[in-house]
Amino acid sequence: MQSWILSAEQDPIKAAATGKDAAVCGDCELRHHKKGACYVVLLHGPQNIYKSAKSGNIPKLQDLTSQERQKLSRMLRKRPIRLGSYGDPAAIPASAWDPILKYPPNHTGFTHQWQNAAAAWLKGRVMASVETRSAAAAAQAAGWKTSRTSITGKADRNETVCLNKTAAAFQCDECHLCDGKSRNIVGPVSGSYSKRFTRADHE
After folding, report:
1. Which secondary-structure segment (H or E) carries 83?
2. pLDDT of res. 203
């Protein structure tokens, strides 16, 4: 199950153009506004979800009937959830995530805000997203499990290669290693903007 963290003030494409994507992505170096290598194609999921929400086609949780809430909870119990298919989970307070996270059997998530004290509650729940070995070492020393993006995707001694990038090609909803507590993961940069990710900057 996907979750989308979007600004209520501006659609994702405009937010990325103006720099207001920082409201949902924090200081991530891979942000579209920074001409980074973010693999999320804004025109697809984020923009469509934003338009649907603004059109009233996505109901607000507080507006659901008791029966609808029960149906939603049953759905959540059956499926793992990704915290922030776009957007950083640290942009949403723990008080909003906690009622959701008590239902799914598993979850995955990633934050670039691992150095921010306000995001400390995510430690053990999501992965610290890093792009260099030095950042990985710092995050691990602070108690985080890391997800390192690299040019080659080759693992260091304390890392496991992303299972989606192996011959088995596991999907995230099958794997669950990026749950913030299992292992340190490494994977190759991917997506339409992967050429923006250079070895000089990130290895």
Report:
1. strand 81-83
2. 66
CA 85/CA 61 separation, integer angstroms? 19
- Structural tokens at position 55: 């059109």
Which helix H or strand E contains 121, and what residues bound it? Answer: none
Res 16: pLDDT: 95
Tell the residue number behind the tokens 């507590």, with chain if given: 181
Neighbouring residues of 100: CB distance < 8 A, sequence distance ≥ 6:
3, 76, 81
CA–CA gap between residue 1 and residue 98 (Å, rounded): 16
- The Cα–Cα gap between 191 and 58 comes to 28
* Amino acid 174: pLDDT: 87
* Residue located via tokens 């995001």: 119
**CA pair distance 39, 41, nearest whole angstrom:** 6
Token code pair at residue 27: 């200081």
Residue at 14: amino acid letter: K
Alpha carbons within 13 A on the beta-carbon side of 22: 7
Quick one: CA dihedral 22, 36, 199, 176, positive or negative?
positive
Q: And the tokens for 166?
A: 């192996």
Residue at 39: amino acid letter: Y
Question: Any idea what the Cα angle at residue 107 is, between residues 147 and 142, rounded to 5°?
Answer: 40
Q: Quick one: pLDDT at residue 201?
A: 64
Domain ranges of the chain: 12-202
- Report the C-alpha gap between 128 and 186 in whole angstroms: 11
pTM: 0.92
Q: Which two tokens stand for residue 12?
A: 């994702």
